[in-house]
């Protein structure tokens, strides 16, 4: 039985590098037979968590924006893949806004993402994952997925600056496809 896969891509560039890798992972999982949804976060309206704590006890966020359509998809997904460019030495604000809003889901007993396999994709301009800040994002994701009880099935991270760069790296594209396939296996 294959898991369904939800891919959240936070790059605002439709022809960008994170987008291309996210699309490659999604296509590979779909070709293997899984139900896959790819969401481009920058096309959604997602406001910042206001820490109003209205969700405490209900698990329901009261902010009426596109997170309301994303919450059920997050809860129902069999596996989760995050893709982000590095902006200012970590993953970008588009993704952080979305993740902060997961807070609501943890205001009721239980861990709703428990045992969902997770993966992530990062691209950055610098040649070094330390200088670029990719390591900061990796560390945050590791801490976060550990807290969420989500096993990390893999990570793909690479230097890529201009649109089209990742397509020149066949090995990297294959790593993204492989990550997509790994995430859907039970
Ligand atoms: C606002 C902004 C901040 C950035 N900050 C960094 C950074 O801190 N480190 C880095 O290596 N590259 C940085 N970059 C370069 C991007 O990570 C790089 O171009 C990446 O390929 C963009 O991903 P995309 O093609 O998926 O949009 C930044 C780019 C932008 C637009």
Explain what you see.
Helices cover 35% and strands 19% of the residues. It is α/β, with parallel strands linked by helices. The chain has one domain (5-184): Flavodoxin domain (Rossmann fold, 3-Layer(aba) Sandwich). Strands 1, 2, 3, 4, 5 and 6 form a six-stranded mixed sheet that branches. Helix 1 (17-31) crosses helix 6. The termini are close together. The model has no long low-confidence stretch (mean pLDDT 97). Bound molecules: flavin mononucleotide (FMN). Flavin mononucleotide (FMN) is lined by residues 11, 13, 16-19, 85-89, 123-126, 132-133, 160-161, 163.
Give a nutshell description of this structure:
The chain has 186 residues and is α/β, with parallel strands linked by helices.
Number of strands: 6
- Please write the CATH class name: Alpha Beta
The ligands found in this model are:
flavin mononucleotide
CATH homologous superfamily classification: Flavodoxin domain
Q: How do the helices and strands follow one another from N- to C-terminus?
A: EHEHEEHEHHEH
Helix content: 25-40%
Q: Report the average pLDDT across residues.
A: 97
Tally of discrete structural domains: 1
- Annotated CATH architecture: 3-Layer(aba) Sandwich
What structural category do the secondary elements indicate? Answer: alpha/beta
User: What kind of sheet is the major sheet?
Assistant: 6 strands, mixed
Q: Given the structure, what is the number of helices?
A: 6
The geometry reads as globular
Could you name the key traits of this structure?
186 residues; alpha/beta; 6 helices; 19% strand; globular; binds flavin mononucleotide
């Amino acid at each position: 039985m294959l898991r369904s896969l939800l891919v959240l891509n936070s790059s605002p560039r439709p022809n960008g590098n994170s987008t291309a890798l996210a699309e490659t992972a999604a296509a590979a999982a779909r070709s293997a037979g899984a139900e896959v949804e790819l969401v481009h976060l920058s096309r959604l309206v997602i406001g910042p968590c206001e820490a109003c704590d209205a969700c405490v006890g209900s698990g329901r966020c009261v902010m009426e924006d596109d997170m309301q359509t994303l919450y059920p998809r997050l809860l129902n997904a069999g596996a989760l893949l995050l893709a982000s460019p590095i902006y200012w030495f970590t993953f970008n604000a588009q993704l952080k806004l979305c993740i902060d809003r997961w807070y609501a889901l943890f205001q009721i007993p239980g861990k709703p993402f428990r045992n969902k396999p997770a993966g992530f994709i990062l691209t950055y301009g610098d040649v070094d994952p330390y200088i670029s800040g990719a390591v900061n994002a990796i560390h945050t994701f590791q801490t976060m997925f550990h807290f969420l009880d989500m096993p990390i099935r893999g990570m793909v991270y690479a230097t890529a600056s201009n649109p089209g760069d990742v397509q020149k790296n066949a090995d990297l594209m294959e790593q993204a496809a492989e990550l997509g396939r790994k995430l859907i296996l039970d």
